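User: We ran a pulldown and think these components assemble together. Before we commit to crystallization trials, I'd like a predicted model of the whole complex to look at. Sequences follow.
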Amino acid sequence: MTAATDAQQRAYIAGQAADARVNVELETEGMTLNIGPQHPATHGTLRIIVRLDGERVVAAEPVMGYMHRGYEKLAEVRTYPQVTTLINRIDWLGSFANEVPFILAAERLMEVEAPPRAKWIRTALFELSRIANVVLFLGDMGVQLGAVTPVFFAFRDREFVLNQIEAVTGGRFHPNFDRIGGLKDDLPKGWIEETKGVLDRIRTFCDEMEVLVAGNEIFEARTRNIGVIPADVGLAYGMSGANIRASGVDWDLRRDSDMGLAHGDLDWKVWTHPDGDSFARYWVRLQEVRESCTMVEQCLDGIPSGPVMAKVPRIIKVPAGEAYVETENPLGIMGYYIVSKGELVPYRVKIRSASFNNVSITPWLLEGVYVPDVISILASLYFILGDIDR
Amino acid sequence: MAALQGFDSLTSGDTVVAQNIAFGILAVVMIVAALRMVTTLNVVHAALYLVIVLAGAAGIFILLGAEFVGVTQVLVYIGAIVVLFLFGIMLTRGALGEDEEANIEKRRMAVLVGVLVLVVTGGAVLDSFGDAAVNRAAPSLTAEIGDSIFSQYIVPFEAVSVLLLAALIGAIVIARKD
Amino acid sequence: MLLNQFLLLAAALFAIGVYGVLARRNGVLVLMSIELILNAVNINLVAFSAVRATVGGEVFALFIIAVAAAEVGVGLAMVLLLYRNRRSIDLTEIDQLRG
Amino acid sequence: MPTPKIPGLIKGLGVTMRTMVRTLTKGSHTVQYPKVKETPTPRARGVIALHEENCTSCMLCVRECPDWCIYIEGHKYLAPPRRAGGKPRQKNALDRFDIDYALCMYCGICVEVCPFEALFWTPEFEYSEPKIADLLHDKSLLGKWMETVPDFTDYEAGSEAKKAQVPR
Amino acid sequence: MNTLTLAVELAYWQQTTLRAVIGLVAVLLPAGTLVYLFLFKMMSFMQSRLGPMEAGPYGSLQLLAEVGKFLQKEDIVPAKADRVVFKAAPFVVLVSTFLLVLVIPGGPDLVFIDVDTGIFLALAVSSISVIGILMAGWASASKYSLLGALRATGQLIAYELPLVLAVMGVVIQAGTLNMQGIVMAQAQGEIFGFGGIGSPFILTQFLGFAIFLIAVQAELTQPPFDMPVAESELVTGYLTEYSGMRFLMFFIGEFATAGIFAALASTLFLGGWYIPGLDPTDNLFNVIGPMVLMGKIILVSFLIFWFRFTYPRFREDQLQTLAWKVLIPLSLINIVVTGVLKVVF
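Assistant: Here's a predicted model for the assembly, 1180 residues in total across the polymer chains.
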């Protein structure tokens, strides 16, 4: 049986199952509802076809690719510095973190290593972009569940983080700051002091969210025991990041593998939660933002002096070979597989982005939940459309 | 409501005219809506025509000085029964589409029966209550209705409550599928 | 206002309701027609009550409203059951007691 | 549903109330843009300024631009010799230097690759136009932006980077 | 019964016109005030922003600008929609709103109609809006709209009960359904012999007040009970297909109803137009009564909107559970206790 007919077969069986399944209370007619591609809850163009029985989901199928921009192909005709500006736009909320694994992979191919100062600044910016990214999730989860205020708090406080990123890199959303062999520039004077103030704000924000969202009984009622992902299922679907840590899997590449950043020199903790439900995912991310704050703080205190750029040729030609580097990005594991033939441009770039795998679990996860829970589960999985479609 | 307010401000002669005009409007609207209700092919439209008829009936009750009944009519009929109808129609989406009209013969018989009923009851009514007039000075008091329900009509009241309970349970038992 | 005008209005509504019950095949519409008939009765009761200046008729109208609510509840439940079993709410189709 | 515990709900109300009081007493975090303007950081990538004297029309920026939004035309001419009796020097004259901001994605590669320090970022951002064609900035307009280029900031302690100078 | 105490004797039609105009004002003025004060300003402040600032001083004319904007918009009817029903639906909702305002007294003589059934009438006409919502949802020919309308119906019917039952305590205590009578009972009543502040029923009927507010929140489909119009789930539910003037009518209906329910709550529980310490039959109240009532409306709707801007929303089944398993039993207990105390004292 070919794959196409296999998929058709499964769709047919799902349809039959949907027809056969009835609500025991009051039989109502099945109905197919398109959530997306234009829907407020998918913040982008994800389409999820759900078959409903009343308000209960019988089958769900995510349809991706409405925003496919062909980055892997585009990267084949871009020089390495140009690719960096391109991949900023994959996960547009934590854009600096996108650059890091690519640059690390290219560095591995070129066999150069960034000087320690560059590594520490990279780590600080990496964690700052994680804060900028996940802070928005913390507020957005509220708005998906109907509370309008948290998301404004999130945008307000994310702005301070973005300002700090802008002060170093010049770009709020698309820093394009990482270079093979180091960083484009050094930190401006006074930045460390300001950033510490911003971190205090973020901590206050986390406290506010803990009260306003996580501590709210309605929020708990909406998220506890909703969308439970057992650890083995999550791993089987290739989930990563906070989504899998919320299922109790103690797995964080920042600690478990040498990513080439300064995380090993910092004192921090990997948060996990045993429940695996929507609430756990929210809670783990909340703790991770706090943890990132302490990490950035330690980075700021411990930045070694020295250059920020290693010796690299002005025109970058990466030697032939292949390398795969993955890092623990805000949304989960992001990896770049670069094949080089020794030219100005990479021969092939494969991007492993976290959201694609995280969303793949939806057909399994959404079966049998109510429509409102579809929204809360999708929100708690936290995907960025650019990270899914690339 | 307008007719009610008129009680004090209008002279009695004017009141009667105003009441008759109000009645005329209500009656025409009700009958037209009722006719459309039984003839329309769209079930949802039929339910909405029913709303008009019921609202008109509430108006008639108020015209007759039976405020409490009028308000109850709005609360129970429009607020609950019609909503129940609409809800039922929308839940069974098979009933949403166009309803097919009954065959000609059946319709003809129904018209015949309807006209017969109208002629017989109308004739009887005209014959018996030739010139009896409705002349209630003021709307009936709600307190009075309450008193009589809980004294004189306490047994039927209790019976109705039991009936409601039985209907509630019955509806659940019928509609539930185990 | 004459008593007759109310009674005639009620008679007209009653006749229309009777037509609806007889002519329509849709279960929901039949139920609605029955509501029409009950309303005609209510108008009569209240009108008589107004003529005699007592509240007895009004109290009965209230009872009828309550009974109508019960009737619609059970009736709609039956229509739903019918729909579930037959995928249709055409009353002419239930001419046999077999489910 | 678990029985509602009062504290979480009440504390949530407290957060919004505190924010309201803070906004009323200390002002909001937003500004009324056209009336109040925030100053971007000196490094902000707002618009690119051209220091024409430094440009040799070497076309490096044009080639490196991922969007191909820079247009340069130039011609060679023979400049009089620097010393009397010498050979006339061949020089590049810049006829056209346009940046189409409708295409630009503000990556900054052009500024970075320029070997003669002819291009600079300035944090200026108010140059939107009703017509998209007007976003094509020519050499005189790009030159005018030079006035708004801020001095390079000092570096944080421990840095070994050298602070560059903005040609004035 | 009800004659406006004016210097000149007015003809019937003049009085009727006057009533209609005052009715319009009584619906639109609180609605506009609430939208500006709470939706524009308080919500912004709670989110550390300023809200509209451009139209008029501190954006006070923003509402007019918004109305102008909506009026300019094209009145779009979806191709498959049932045109007549689709267009009529917002009017049905508005009718419910305008009928609601009729029973609220603004002073000893300031009443639209002084009917015996008072609060009962208000609760009855408030249920008309369900029909409008069902019409809107069905006629839009959109799945989201239909789902929203069905949710709205389930919710409004479920919360009609606690709403009515919460009022029952007040009715028992006041001994009348008449709104004016309820105000008078609070103005002239006394709590265990202490009559200094009258007897605002919020003191004796606090449970009823709380249940009433929760039920009102649900009737208004506001967070935490806004599933019918949940934007992130149903793309604003039954409002999805509406635009321009008809959307505006739903919008006015929503906020006017919020104002009127706040007025109902203040009349039932806070003493309506009365402020303690004065003689309730004083002619003065015909002048300051509406203002006192407006103040209380703003107070109560502050609570309503505060909840709205703070809480996330429930799920359908949780909402029904709350209504049937918590609110209705509590209000029944409230009625029993009130009845027993009424008989004992």
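The first strand of chain D starts at residue 47 and ends at 50. That may be worth checking against your pulldown data before setting up trials.

User: Thanks, that helps.
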